[in-house]
Design brief:
Elements: H1 12-63, E1 87-91, E2 125-131, E3 142-150, E4 153-161
Antiparallel strand pairs: 1-2, 2-3, 3-4
């Protein structure tokens, strides 16, 4: 004789175990989604900062000169002063404009990159510095470094001009 069970369905213990496992998977997928979003934002900001730094550097190298008012000294001579900070030749810090006309005077010929419609924070800083890595002898190339700082991150590009 076959005995039939009258209680059809799941026990409370089975339901609790199923809910715990389901909640673990939902939590795992949510964490993966949040991590992916933050990595995407980091990569997007880095790419835009990279483009801005390269563009600002290109504006200097297209002129193939640095502002005439910049001279080699202990601030930018890294041959004799290895920890020299370099001379700021243009910056967007504190609302200053990133532009010059070869002699240090303001010009519309070199404007800072507009970051207002990008993923970079509005507090980002664009800066160009000059260094003389081979000293202050005549006809030595200058090293121009373009840096974009956004939040706690920064991107730099560099090249040489005569």
């Amino acid at each position: 004789m076959v005995v039939q069970r009258a209680d059809i369905g799941f026990t409370v213990a089975e339901l609790v175990v199923t809910l715990v496992i389901l909640s673990l998977f939902v939590g795992l997928f949510y964490q993966m989604f949040v991590t992916g979003q933050s990595q995407q934002q980091f990569i997007s900001q880095r790419a835009v900062a990279n483009d801005v730094a390269q563009s600002n550097l290109g504006k200097v190298t297209s002129k193939n000169q640095i502002p005439g008012s910049i001279t080699c000294n202990s601030t930018n001579d890294t041959l004799n002063y290895p920890s020299a900070p370099g001379t700021v030749i243009a910056t967007s810090a504190s609302g200053a404009s990133l532009k010059w006309n070869g002699d240090g005077s303001p010009s519309s010929g070199l404007a800072k990159e507009n970051i207002s419609n990008t993923v970079l924070p509005s507090s980002s800083n664009q800066e160009l510095r000059v260094f003389y890595p081979r000293g202050c002898a005549s006809n030595m190339p200058a090293r121009i470094v373009s840096t974009v700082t956004y939040g706690s991150e920064s991107v730099s590009h560099a090249t040489f001009v005569k």
